[in-house]
Specification:
- The chain is mainly beta and 661 residues long.
- It is built from three helices and 45 strands.
- Strands 1-18-20-19-15-14 form a six-stranded mixed beta sheet, with no helix packed on it.
- The protein is globular.
- 50% of the residues are buried.
Length: 661
């Protein structure tokens, strides 16, 4: 097995042009494949490649010298904390809960994903015969082919916080991160020997685990930086990470006053001048199952890196291509000098979106001039080749993105929902939202259509694109559900609107013109009042109607509101994990479980029952009993918490088995 991850300057380089290029040079556009008479100008963010390390180092050093101060690089004391684990988290299909079949075996549900056929990392995976779980420091392999769930293997995961995994055949690929303050001695008595990380920064860790019998670590890879997200298509994983400059031992003022600061600045500028590519490109280390280092180096060569034509910071956005059929073997790696925050992928394209560098510099107090308005940059990559990830195009839209569902590709067009004020911030009279349609022309994503002015004074709380229709929910006091006709990308139109109390934080298509929303009920003044599930009739886009609701009492919330992987919809049954707490003068009460709702032919909601793990109710409650995921295998529903796994009959919800973790 080949483990060498560093990719040299081969023909598989960034597909910019054969002549790209010196720093700052732009790639010429190819002829557009679509009519462009109504394309609107946008800020140029096309990427330029580096042809050698000399050009790469000239670029990063020149910009770093502008940012260096008496305490190092301003804004780069630590790698970016905006990167998230697992994540985040994408689709245009009418049925997004993937279903498969085994030879002469039962059907089963997979991870609730955005795009059918594009898997996303999650803490639970199944192939229809086993369920693999990451829970409280262990990887647990459970056989669900018999009458009771049976644990067949358990692997301790050491000091790394693993949050998610992919499952492909008999291999599990785990994602996690750890904080390592310095050299860590190996624990020679541990069940799995691990090599000692030397990094003093957050580190992404990938572990390949061989299943079948007792699971064991085959290889472990550590990479500088933090995980943004990942996608898997046909066993090929694209991993997106972000990292900051590393390895600098900065000088600091030896005392107070301007003289000491100026001396430290000049010493730090000299440190920047002497830097090498190892300071700017993430480093990786691969170890075998016994903890022996078998490969290490910078993740890719300088000519596999690129930069936007406008400076976007010194963080490195890296995309790794890993074919799990070949083990933990990085088939390709490439990088962009930019941040990465939101990942969306179709089967052939991967998009990475990031907030404009200048906006973050202003918010961080690094510059005093506020930008004209918030902008989000979007970079598109071609992933149709399982051995290669190549750059395609870049563009930008005004505003902030809520999450991965704000992006959607359909018939070659990218639809983007954005808002001028990020969710969670206090809204303002100037807040509004829009849907922008981008078309690729050469190496640029150009704005060809837009619907503006959605939700004045409000913010986006959920988005769902389905074919030629988009749904956008905004909220401040009420929940306007907007229906956007996208059938003509050059002339999109808002055709329907429904105002109701509360909001939906997640929208799920049910087919037959029905849409389910999961969010919060709210009073007339916008005060949230508990988890609410709604059924919308969207068969007539000009007249969306809410058919029914199911509301849980005040104090309740659901993980679905911020992680769509927690949602399950299967053959008319929706499983909603819920946590509810009451603390008042008279009593304290807790419910941690799942509510099962059946959707009737007329869109009515009927409570089918509740599922509660031991410790999930008032008596001797335990926070670990919170149900995190639900899956279907054959005729049974499996619910997973940190306490264990419960098997229930799918029709009656009667308990059939329990496995304590």
């Amino acid at each position: 097995m080949r483990h060498r991850a560093r990719i040299s300057s081969l023909a598989i380089g960034l597909a910019l042009t054969a002549g790209a290029c010196a720093p700052g040079a732009l790639v010429e556009n190819t002829l557009p494949s679509r009519p462009v008479h109504d394309q609107q100008p946008v800020r140029s963010v096309a990427l330029a490649a580096f042809d050698a390390c000399a050009g790469f180092l000239d670029y990063v050093k020149s910009h770093a010298l502008d940012l260096v101060g008496p305490y190092g690089l301003k804004g780069y004391m630590m790698p970016p904390w905006s990167a998230r684990l697992g994540a985040i988290v994408e689709e245009d299909m009418t049925l997004t809960t993937m279903a498969g079949s085994l030879a002469a075996g039962p059907t089963f549900s997979g991870t609730n994903v955005q795009v059918n056929g594009v898997d996303e990392p999650d803490l639970v995976k199944t192939d229809g015969s086993r369920i693999v779980v990451v829970s409280e420091g262990y990887l647990i392999d459970v056989d669900v082919s018999g009458p009771e769930p049976v644990e067949t293997g358990r692997l301790p995961l050491g000091d790394v916080s693993y949050q998610s995994l992919f499952l492909s055949g008999d291999r599990a690929l785990l994602f996690g991160s750890s904080w390592n303050p310095g050299p860590v001695p190996l624990d020679v008595e541990s069940d799995v020997a691990r090599f000692a990380p030397m990094s003093g920064s957050p580190t992404l860790e990938i572990v390949e685990v061989e299943l079948g019998g007792e699971p064991s670590v085959v290889h472990t890879m550590r990479i500088d930086g933090s995980l943004v997200s990942g996608r898997m298509v046909d066993g090929v994983v694209r991993l997106v990470s972000t990292s900051g400059p590393v390895g600098f031992e900065w000088s600091y003022p030896s005392g107070t006053g301007l003289r000491a600061e100026r001396k430290a600045i000049e010493e730090n500028r000299e440190i920047v001048r002497k830097s090498t590519e190892d300071n700017w490109i993430p480093y990786y280390v691969v170890a075998d199952g016994d903890g022996n280092v078998v490969d290490e180096g910078t993740l890719f060569d300088c000519d596999r890196a690129a930069h936007p034509d406008e400076f976007s910071g010194l963080n490195m956005l890296s995309i790794l291509t890993i074919d799990l059929s070949n083990g933990l073997d990085v088939a390709d790696a490439t990088g962009v000098l930019a941040n990465g925050e939101t990942v969306y992928a179709s089967e052939d394209s991967l998009y990475v979106a990031t907030q404009d560098w200048q906006a973050w510099r202003f918010l961080g107090g690094m510059v005093s001039d506020e930008p004209d308005g918030p902008e989000t940059e979007i970079h598109k990559f071609d992933i149709s080749d399982p051995r290669l990830t190549s750059y395609s195009a870049s563009g930008s839209v005004s505003g902030y993105l809520l999450n991965q569902f704000a992006l959607d590709e359909n018939d070659g067009y990218l639809r983007v929902a954005s808002t001028t004020t990020p969710t969670g911030w206090e809204s303002s009279p100037d807040s509004s939202s829009r849907v922008t349609i981008l078309d690729q022309v050469g190496e640029r994503l150009l704005n060809v259509g837009m619907v503006d002015g959605l939700g004045e004074t409000e913010q986006i709380y959920s988005v769902r694109f389905m074919g030629d229709v988009g749904y956008v929910v905004t909220f401040r006091q009420t929940d306007p559900l907007y229906v956007i006709d996208l059938s003509d990308p050059h002339a999109p139109e808002m055709v329907g609107e429904l105002k109701i109390p509360g909001y939906s934080a997640y929208l799920h298509p049910l087919g037959d013109g029905l849409l389910m929303g999961v969010g919060q009920d709210a009073s007339e003044d916008g005060r949230v009042e508990g988890t609410q599930v709604s059924i919308f009739d969207v068969s007539d886009p000009s007249d969306p109607r809410r058919l029914d609701t199911f509301t849980i009492d005040t104090g309740s919330n659901s993980e679905i509101e911020y992680d769509h992987h927690a949602f399950l919809y299967w053959d008319g049954l929706a499983v909603i994990p819920v946590q509810q707490y009451w603390w008042d003068e008279k009593s304290d009460s807790v419910f941690m479980g799942a509510i099962a709702l059946r959707v009737g032919e007329d869109g009515d909601l009927v409570k089918a029952g509740e599922i509660v793990h031991p410790g999930g109710d008032d008596e001797n409650w335990d926070w670990r009993a919170q149900i995190r995921r639900s899956l279907v295998v054959g005729d049974f529903l499996y619910t997973v918490s940190s306490k264990g796994m419960m098997k229930s009959e799918l029709d009656t919800l009667d308990q059939e088995g329990w496995l304590d973790f």
